[in-house]
Fold:
Amino acid sequence: MKIDLTGQVAIVTGAGGGLGREYALLLARRGAKVVVNDLGGGRDGRGAGNDMADAVVAEIEAAGGTAMANGANVTDFDQVSEMVAEAKDAWGRVDILVNNAGILRDRTFAKLDLDDFRAVLEVHLMGSTNCTKAVWDTMREQNHGRIVLTTSSSGLYGNFGQSQYGAAKLGLVGLMNTLRLEGAKYGIRINCLAPSAATRMTEDIMDEATFQALSPASVAPGVLALCSRGAPDGIVMCAGAGSFERAYITLTKGVFVGSGEDAAERLLEQFDTMSDRDGETVPETGLEQSIYEAKVFQAANKERCPVDG
Structure:
C-alpha cells in the first residue's frame, strides 16, 4: 500500500539543504504538513529571514503542499520547544520528527580542540535529544509518533578523524534503544538512520564519482518508511545510493573462564572462541546480557558440582 501521510505533521531539522531538504520534500509530497527547520541562512537564528528554509517551503508550496520555515537552534531547548508549540498552534499536532541537523569538525584526536568535540556532541546528540524531548509528551498524549535519529557509519564502525562525530552518533543509538522501550506502549516508534550521501557536510571529503552516486534523494525513501504507520521500531537502517541495509549490535555465545589469578590469561587464550559469531544473538534489552551471563555461570558451576537426583 502507498504510504499516505495526509493529516500528519512533521518536523525536519537541518532541512534547508541536502538530506533534510529531500526528507521534507518527500514527506510533503505524501501529504504531511512540514516544519522546515534550518539554522543556516537565517539572519536572526529564530526563523525570520531564514533563506534556506524559506526556499524549501516555497518548493513545497509550489507543489501544492503545506509547510512553514523555522530557524530554531537545536542546541537551545527553549527555541526547540517554541518550534513545536508553533507547529501545534498552526496544525494541532506533531506526528513525525526527523532529527537531521548536524555539523562536522573533523580532526584527529591528537589535534582536535575539546571545544569542537563538545560542539559536535551538542548539535548531534543533545540537539536530537532536545527535539525528541520537546515532542515526547505530545506524542504520548496522541498515542502516536514517529522519530528518526540520524546515526552514522562513523559511530557504528569508526572513521579516521571523526572521534567526536562517531561518539555523538553512536550515542544516538543508545538513546534509541532506551526510548523504544519507553515509547512502545504510547505508539511511539523510534529508529536510527545511517545515511551515506553527498551533502554540504561531505562535499570536501568525497571524490567526484562517489559524490554523484550518493544523492540525498536516494536516502529519502528510508526516512519515509521509518515515518510510516507500518514503521519498524528500534532498528538501525543504513542507506545510500538506493541501497538499504540493517545494522545490528550482537552478542556472541562467548566463553566462561570464571575468576582466579590467571583468569585474564585464560581469557586471552580463548579470545578467538569468545569472538566466534556462530550462534550470536541480538538482545532485546541491556538486561539480557546480565541474564545470559548469570545462566552461563550457573551452568558452569552445575557441571563442576553436579547434584544427584
The two ends are 59 Å apart (CA to CA).
